[in-house]
Amino acid sequence: MSFLEMYMNHISVKKYTSIENDPRILIPNLYCYDTLPISETDRNAFPYLLAAGNLFCENLFSFSFRPMDCYMLLFTTDGCGTLSVNGENTLLKKDLLLMLDCNQNFSLQCTLLPWTFKIFFLSGNPLRLFGDLLSLKNAPVFRLPEFSHLHQSIQQLFGISSDVSMPQFLFMQQLLNRICTSLYLSDHPTAPFSGAAVPADLAEIPPYLIEMKDAFDHHYEKDFSLNACQERYGISKYRLCREFSAFFGEPPLHYLNSRRLEAAKEMLLTSDLNIHAISSLIGFDNVNHFINLFKKYVGTTPNAFRQKAPEVLPSSHSPAQ
């Protein structure tokens, strides 16, 4: 049985007045592995995609699923949805990534429109290991920092064509293993990290890390470098990177760029400043570097973001009744 047949046999649709929802809207991309020089048994030794969708939903929907032998990743970028499992509801809000074992009854519905999200259905024996480690039947969700490397990994999955070639299949393994491993490590904050346990108590954050973060938060326009931080605090830049990542979830310069790009988005939405001026005000002397970084993490150029702003402002959202 193909995944599409299994999917359609295990899903039911709640009908809303005057709204017809085809359950296939969740899986516009179906993956085929017929041309791979490996058997289905060998393929199952790796995690792989069954179907995926990059969705912008303006209409209400509610889908119920009977148990399916697969897993689901769902990452919300705007709006909100609700997952219901065993009578418990989980809000799927912006920047939350859900990983679910689909071998149970569950339902998925819109809560705040428009709901924009990326969804993947996965299979492969290694996922059972991650399933046990993450206790997937409890429907865990993970908050991803806006500029986490996982955003890029999730987006890169959509670059894999429906007829999967062997190089694409191997690239898929790299991305899925990176995502699953990162989720597991984020769920176990006391796991060994470069030979040292990561302190779980935020009260134990060293003062120099608090000072670094404060400088990035409030003076992001200044010229920062790891060498300058090393000189200022008298601590190896490698140690600073390791400890900053352990406490705040990402390396220091990634965090700094996230603050700069947040400021840039606010300026694009609230001012008429040109791109060169905004780039300079947030600490980028090279405007091309700013544009490329913005496009990499936001998914569009600064000018395109500004032009599309009226379509995505929060005020245009309406709660589902």
Topology:
Layout: H1 3-9, E1 11-13, E2 29-30, H2 40-43, E3 48-57, E4 62-65, E5 71-85, E6 88-92, E7 96-101, E8 106-123, H3 126-134, E9 141-143, H4 149-156, H5 166-186, E10 192-193, E11 196-197, H6 207-218, H7 226-233, H8 237-248, H9 252-270, H10 275-281, H11 287-298, H12 302-312, E12 318-319
Antiparallel strand pairs: 1-4, 2-3, 3-8, 4-8, 5-6, 5-7, 5-8, 7-9, 8-12, 10-11
Helix pairs in contact: 3-5, 4-5, 6-9, 9-12
Strand content: 15-25%
Task: Report how far the terminal alpha carbons are from each other.
Answer: 37 Å
What would you call the structural class?
alpha+beta
> Sheet bearing the most strands, described?
10 strands, antiparallel
What percent of residues adopt helix (DSSP H or I)? 40-55%
Specify the number of helices: 12
Low-confidence stretches: 189-203, 310-321
Radius of gyration: 22 Å
- Give the helices and strands as they follow along the chain: HEEHEEEEEEHEHHEEHHHHHHHE
Question: What is the subunit organization of this protein?
Answer: single chain
Shape: globular
Topology, number of strands: 12
Mean pLDDT: 84
Characteristic terms for this protein:
single chain; 321 residues; alpha+beta; disordered C terminus; ten-stranded antiparallel beta sheet
Structure, described:
With 321 residues, this protein is an alpha+beta fold. It contains 12 helices and 12 strands. It has helices spanning 3-9, 40-43, 126-134, 149-156, 166-186, 207-218, 226-233, 237-248, 252-270, 275-281, 287-298, 302-312, and strands at residues 11-13, 29-30, 48-57, 62-65, 71-85, 88-92, 96-101, 106-123, 141-143, 192-193, 196-197, 318-319. Strands 1, 2, 3, 4, 5, 6, 7, 8, 9 and 12 form a 10-stranded antiparallel sheet that branches. A two-stranded antiparallel sheet has the order 10-11. Strand 10 (192-193) and strand 11 form a beta hairpin. The two termini are 37 Å apart.
